[in-house]
């Protein structure tokens, strides 16, 4: 058994699946055919990274329908609309529009951060409908299967600079939405390259009642270019674990592994003069100045601390939105 596997390893190629399966089946003590089959299927699904998935099983999670609970929103720094989409699905466009316009009632919004990090979905028509809120011109937007959708600008668009946040777990219809917005010159993409899973799928029935969903062909932009991994216009690299923490609270200060990492975020501190007023008085006395210390100055109340966005991707997006808004204002 070992010699057969060793020969395959030394050739630089993976062992033959059927050979490995049969050897494991025959020689692993206590392993049933059902256990081995389950391990093999789960391994395949994991290695295919979303290009094939099992659907219809009893443990399959229920995805949001009709846009329920798919958006998280906030107004950042008094004037930036933050819209986080968990899944691109039915009614997303209505939710985005209603949420955004509710913000404008009490705030002067200067731009929008559309956060598609960790977002997914397979409703490409919903992606087009959401893009329509930001796209100012009519143009071919997305193609999938035999279907092609043009943008349809709305009467009340979401105006101002748009930053689209993505990462390696932005997939499917969320990738298509990001790519379409950039293609239409509606916004810039910030973050890391996406998963590369903007694809149409086919479902194949299996004997156990589940279905095997296989990604068969890439979704394309209106110009015919396939949407593969969507690369950002501005790359901002963040540790995946940190990014998940920032998604829960963009203002959280994360603990660093060591002091040197902390110094890296505060490099100017070694150059700050830490000399106190008492130290200065002592120096004057040493130099022969005995006029004594100056009259005490009433202490000023400490300023109220200001919350600072710690999420590097979101912070970059907010800075760019504010900067572009200022430039736009100055040109009016």
Observed structural traits:
six-stranded mixed sheet; single chain; 12 strands; disordered N terminus; 17% strand; 10 helices; three-stranded antiparallel sheet; 332 residues; alpha/beta; 2-enoyl-CoA Hydratase, Chain A, domain 1
The CATH superfamily of the domain at 71-238 is identified as 2-enoyl-CoA Hydratase, Chain A, domain 1
The number of strands is 12
So, CATH architecture of the domain at 71-238?
Answer: Alpha-Beta Complex
Question: Helical content, roughly?
Answer: 25-40%
In CATH, the topology of the domain at 71-238 is named 2-enoyl-CoA Hydratase, Chain A, domain 1
Quick overview:
It contains ten helices and twelve strands. Helices cover 34% and strands 17% of the residues.
Describe this structure in words.
The strands form 3 sheets. Strands 2-3-4-7-8-12 form a 6-stranded mixed beta sheet, with helices on both faces. Helices cover 34% and strands 17% of the residues. The protein has 332 residues and is α/β, with parallel strands linked by helices. It starts with a helix and ends with a helix. It is globular and about 90 Å long. It has helices at residues 2-10, 17-27, 33-47, 92-106, 124-131, 173-183, 240-248, 259-264, 277-286, 312-331; strands at residues 52-55, 71-76, 80-85, 111-115, 140-144, 147-150, 162-166, 188-191, 199-205, 211-218, 220-221, 234-235. Among the domains are: 2-47, no CATH class; 71-238, 2-enoyl-CoA Hydratase, Chain A, domain 1, CATH 3.90.226.10. A hairpin with a 5-residue loop joins strand 9 (199-205) and strand 10.
């Amino acid at each position: 058994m070992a010699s057969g596997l060793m020969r395959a390893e030394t050739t630089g190629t993976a062992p033959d699946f059927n050979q490995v399966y049969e050897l494991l089946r025959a020689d692993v003590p206590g392993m049933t055919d059902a256990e081995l089959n389950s391990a093999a299927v789960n391994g395949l699904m994991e290695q295919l990274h979303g290009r094939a998935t099992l659907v219809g099983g009893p443990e399959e999670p229920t995805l949001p329908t009709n846009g329920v609970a798919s958006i998280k929103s906030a107004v950042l720094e008094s004037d930036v609309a933050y819209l986080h989409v968990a899944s691109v699905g039915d009614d997303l466009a209505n939710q985005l529009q209603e949420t955004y316009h509710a913000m404008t009632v009490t705030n002067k919004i200067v731009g929008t951060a559309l956060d598609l990090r960790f977002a997914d979905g397979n409703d490409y028509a919903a992606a087009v409908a959401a893009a329509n809120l930001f796209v100012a011109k009519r143009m071919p937007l997305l193609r999938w299967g035999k279907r092609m959708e043009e943008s349809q600008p709305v009467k009340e668009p979401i105006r101002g600079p748009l930053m689209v946040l993505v990462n390696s777990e932005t997939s499917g219809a969320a990738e298509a939405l990001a790519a379409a917005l950039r293609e239409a010159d509606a916004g810039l993409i910030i973050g890391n390259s996406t998963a590369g899973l903007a694809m149409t799928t086919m479902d194949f029935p299996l004997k156990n009642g589940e279905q095997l969903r296989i990604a068969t062909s890439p979704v394309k932009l209106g110009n015919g270019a396939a949407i593969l991994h969507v690369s950002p216009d501005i790359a901002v690299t963040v540790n995946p674990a940190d990014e998940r923490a920032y998604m829960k609270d963009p203002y959280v200060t994360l603990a660093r592994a060591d002091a040197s990492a902390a110094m890296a975020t505060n490099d100017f501190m070694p150059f700050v003069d830490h000399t106190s007023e008492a130290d200065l008085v002592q120096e004057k006395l040493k130099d022969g100045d005995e006029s004594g210390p100056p009259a005490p100055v009433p202490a000023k109340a400490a300023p109220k601390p200001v919350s600072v966005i710690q999420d590097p991707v979101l912070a970059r997006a907010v800075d760019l939105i504010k900067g572009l808004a200022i430039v736009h204002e100055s040109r009016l």
